[in-house]
Design goal:
Elements: H1 3-23, E1 45-46, E2 52-53, H2 65-70, E3 95-101, E4 109-114, E5 121-122, E6 132-137, E7 143-148, E8 151-156, E9 163-167, E10 169-173, E11 179-186, E12 191-198, E13 205-206, E14 214-219, E15 225-230, E16 233-238, E17 247-248, E18 257-262, E19 268-273, E20 280-285, E21 292-293, E22 301-306, E23 312-317, E24 328-333, E25 340-341, E26 352-358
Antiparallel strand pairs: 1-2, 3-4, 3-26, 4-5, 6-7, 7-8, 8-9, 10-11, 11-12, 12-13, 14-15, 15-16, 16-17, 18-19, 19-20, 20-21, 22-23, 23-24, 24-25
Bound molecules: calcium ion (2 copies).
Length: 360
C-alpha cells in the first residue's frame, strides 16, 4: 500500500463517518429511509434517524450514541447469530486476520475470525490516531505481523505483546518463521526497497538494489524467493538479493500488477491487475505463464490470500456497495466460481473489511 493509498483511505473513512453522522444515512443499503421496524428486515430496527440497524452488531449502529447504548457496551465481539443459517462453502478451515473500520470513533483495527466467518474479534487497541494495516500470520499462527504508523510490529494473535521491529510497510512472515519481509523508504525517502529482518528485529538487510517503487514482498513456500511489485510489474528475486537471479513475471507499460502471493504448493501466484480497466484478481503460473482473470467484475477486487490447502482464494471487494466507502471480504474457488461473502456471516456491516490473511 502506498502512502497515497493510506491518505486516501483515511480521508475516505473520515468522510464516511461524517456523512453517516450528518445525514443518518441508511446503513447496509437495505432500506433507504425506514419509518417503522417493519421496513427493516430480520432483527433490524428502524433508528429515528431513518436507517435500519441490528442492535447486536456494533458496526451497524456505530453512527449513533443511542445505538452505542443499545449494544453490549465495551465488547468488540460481533454476534454471529444472524449468520448461523447461511450455508457456507466447504473447506473454510483456519483463521483469518483482517483489518476493519467499524466505528466512527475508531480506526482501522486488526480483527481475527474463523475462516468460515464466525466469531470476528477485534484484537488491537487504539494507538494515537494510527491505523493498523497488512496483517500477516506467523507460520504457527501464534503471532501476527502488521503495519502501524510507518512501523512493522509483531504481536501475539490475541493482540498482546506488541513489539516494533522495523520501520516500513507491508510485512510478510517467512515460511520458516525466522524472518519478515517488508518494503521501506530509505535514503531520504527516495528509494522504496524490499527488506528482510529477523523476526526479533535484528539484522535488517535490503535485497533490492536501490529501486524506486518496490512493494508487497511475499515469500515462496520454500522460503528461497520473494515475489514483489516493482513499478507496474510482478518480479521475483532470491532472498540473498542476487539481482542476476531476478525474474519479471508480468510485462506492462500502462496498467499495474501488484499484490503477488504464492500458492501453498508454490506452483501458482495470485495477484491484482488493472489491465481490464479496474482491479481484478488474477492467477498465473509461478513462471508468469497462463495469466487468468478470475473475478471479472467492475468492482475493485484486491488483497488476495490463499487458503492453507490452496483450493480457495479470499479477497477484498466493494461490489456490494460501489461508493468506495464499504468493502467486504469474499472467498471463492481458484477458478473464480463459488463466490461467498464471508464478512456477511456475522452480519453485514457498512464499513471497510479488507486485507484478509489466512493462516497457513
Ligand atoms: Ca474488478
Ligand atoms: Ca463491510
Amino acid at each position: 500500500m502506498t502512502l497515497t493509498d493510506l491518505v486516501k483511505k483515511f480521508l475516505a473513512a473520515s468522510a464516511f463517518s461524517l456523512a453517516m453522522y450528518a445525514s443518518g444515512c441508511n446503513s447496509g443499503g437495505e432500506s433507504a429511509g425506514c419509518r417503522t421496524d417493519f421496513d427493516c428486515r430480520g432483527d433490524r430496527i428502524c433508528h429515528r434517524e431513518g436507517y435500519c440497524y441490528d442492535p447486536r452488531n456494533l458496526e451497524d449502529g456505530g453512527s449513533s450514541a443511542d445505538v452505542h447504548n443499545v449494544r453490549d457496551a465495551g465488547r468488540d465481539i460481533v454476534s454471529s447469530d444472524s449468520g448461523r443459517d447461511i450455508p457456507r462453502p466447504e473447506g473454510l478451515f483456519g483463521k483469518i486476520a483482517f483489518i476493519s473500520y467499524r466505528n466512527r470513533s475508531d480506526r482501522f483495527h486488526i480483527w481475527v475470525m474463523n475462516a468460515d466467518g464466525d466469531n470476528p474479534i477485534k484484537v488491537t487497541e487504539n494507538v494515537g490516531n494510527n491505523n493498523y494495516f497488512c496483517p500477516s500470520w506467523s507460520p504457527d499462527a501464534r503471532k501476527i505481523a502488521y503495519e502501524l504508523g510507518g512501523g512493522i510490529y509483531t504481536m501475539n494473535a490475541d493482540g498482546s505483546n506488541s513489539v516494533r521491529i522495523a520501520f516500513g510497510q507491508e510485512p510478510a512472515w517467512s515460511p520458516d518463521g525466522q524472518k519478515i519481509s517488508y518494503s521501506a523508504l530509505r535514503d531520504g525517502a527516495r528509494l522504496q526497497d524490499i527488506y528482510l529482518i529477523n523476526a526479533d528485529g535484528s539484522n535488517e538487510q535490503s535485497i533490492t538494489p536501490g529501486l524506486m517503487d518496490a512493494h508487497h514482498p511475499t515469500w515462496s513456500p520454500n522460503g528461497r524467493m520473494i515475489a514483489f511489485q516493482f513499478w507496474k510489474d510482478i518480479w521475483l528475486i532470491d532472498i540473498n538479493g542476487n539481482w542476476d537471479n531476478r525474474a519479471r513475471l508480468t510485462t506492462s507499460t500502462t496498467y499495474t500488477n501488484y499484490n503477488p502471493v504464492f500458492s501453498p504448493d508454490g506452483r501458482k501466484i495470485v495477484f491484482v491487475s488493472t489491465r481490464d480497466g479496474n482491479n481484478e484478481i488474477y492467477v498465473m503460473n509461478a513462471d508468469g505463464g497462463n495469466q487468468i482473470n478470475i473475478t471479472n467484475n467492475p468492482a475493485n477486487d484486491e488483497y488476495p490470500t490463499w487458503s492453507p490447502n490452496g483450493q480457495k482464494i479470499m479477497f477484498t471487494t466493494d461490489r456490494d456497495e460501489r461508493r468506495g466507502l464499504n468493502t467486504e471480504i469474499y472467498v471463492m474457488n481458484t477458478d473464480g466460481t463459488g463466490l461467498f461473502n464471508i464478512t456477511a456471516v456475522a452480519g453485514n456491516n457498512s464499513n471497510y473489511d479488507e486485507q484478509p490473511a489466512w493462516t497457513r
